[in-house]
């Protein structure tokens, strides 16, 4: 698995949809990309890329599942997700549709641009016996041996659930389910961000309350999780495509598609105090006449700045766009004029770049 190819500035790979793909940084010059291949079988593939200036060199892809890996982008939720443990190790979670819609995971080891995969570890309600349909999910690392996965349990009233996984070598074991919402998690957005080795913030859309956007602080003890009170960061209209990234141990940034604002990308900054959350005012990433931003992503750059990417579909199939923003003590400041990337004809490039997240997000 040592062959490689060089592609200046951008890269293309035949993926099924954006929801079936994710990219995360392993280091300042290396990243991992995983997703659902558009190969007729919907196999799962992963590869390692190296960045040098504006050039990207990638190794051969590793097939981590031979078929039936879920893919979904219409609603903007994830079904393949990566948690980076170190520059040479990560955990991948995905959904295997046939026969039982299993939620699967494995530990991967990186050597140069070569990948090796550990044994599959199944998580979720009733393990492989249940029929999840398509379950939105996201996995993050808490430290070098611990991960947290949040997902919608389609087999149990669409409840919102978190499980803690422990890594030992290339083996992964999962603890019991910890529910943060008893029912009605929407597929249109679920994400979480670590703010310490034992604390994270989970965000979600509640389909029983006008598809509002909500958040909770989760505290981890072993594989058990307790949750603080629910905080609402958006109400009165749908909040879709939710994404979150942490500035530090007390502040997070959330981006979402605002159903009451023509589905423009909007950002809010949240402040954590113990197990409580409060949010500042929203800031739109696009001008007032923009509509229907999709494939949202957000990454914090340091303690004061973040970058948001999205796919601008308001005028048809448009290019991806991005915007650099900063935050004050309570709320995000107005972002500069957005800048485009990709081209109108290169929707697969947009989807690829649109899932960019930093390893601590």
Strand fraction equals: over 45%
Q: Return the structural class.
A: mainly beta
Counting DSSP H or I runs of 4 or more residues, the number of helices is 1
Assign a percent range to the helix content.
under 10%
How would you characterize the overall build of this protein?
The protein is mainly beta. The chain has a domain at 184-361: 7 Propeller (Methylamine Dehydrogenase, Chain H). The chain has 1 helix and 31 strands. Residues 1-11, 15-19, 73-77, 327-337 and 340-361 have low confidence and may be disordered.
Key terms:
361 residues, mainly beta, Methylamine Dehydrogenase, Chain H, seven-stranded mixed β-sheet, five-stranded antiparallel β-sheet, 1 helix, 31 strands, disordered N terminus, disordered C terminus
Secondary structure layout plus pairing:
Blueprint: E1 4-8, E2 21-25, E3 30-36, E4 44-52, E5 55-59, E6 62-65, E7 80-86, E8 89-96, E9 102-111, E10 114-117, E11 121-123, E12 137-143, E13 146-153, E14 159-168, E15 171-174, E16 178-181, E17 185-194, E18 199-206, E19 212-221, E20 224-227, E21 231-234, E22 239-246, E23 251-258, E24 264-273, E25 276-279, E26 283-284, E27 293-300, E28 305-312, E29 320-326, E30 339-341, H1 347-354, E31 356-357
